[in-house]
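Can anyone check this?
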Amino acid sequence: MKGWIIAIVCTIVLGVLLEIVLPKGKMAKYVKGVFSLVVILVIVSPLPKLFGSDWKFDFSSAWANVNNTFVDETKDDRLDEQASELESYLALYGYDCEIKLTTGEKLFEIGECEVTSFGKSEDAEAIIDLVANKLGIDRKNVRFILKPQIYEEQ
């Protein structure tokens, strides 16, 4: 009984610390959700003993899931930020493009880049060179898509 009360108190203290440390945003929502499950498991953990069964929960797997979610969210945010920076970089050269990045085999490595241009087809090679050099990837990993601009009548 004493160990159960200590576990509840420690869980509440950990929850308060997480609330203070976690940044606001998507990641906080996932961490709070997983943490609320941990709190429920800590509170109901003595119930199986009351019913005479031996039940144990492996907390390391719960934290591994939280860690994987954090890594995935961080990768997505980083790719979005790099794509936005690359669009601004190309705009400096006068190219109107949308960028979509995908991850490579390593954690924060860029695997492929899809460039959708609203300019002229003659700009394709220059844009591919700029993107490949800026990202430090091979030219063959840059996919170029040309979309014609639609002009509205005034």
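Reply from J.R.: I decoded it. The radius of gyration is 25 Å.
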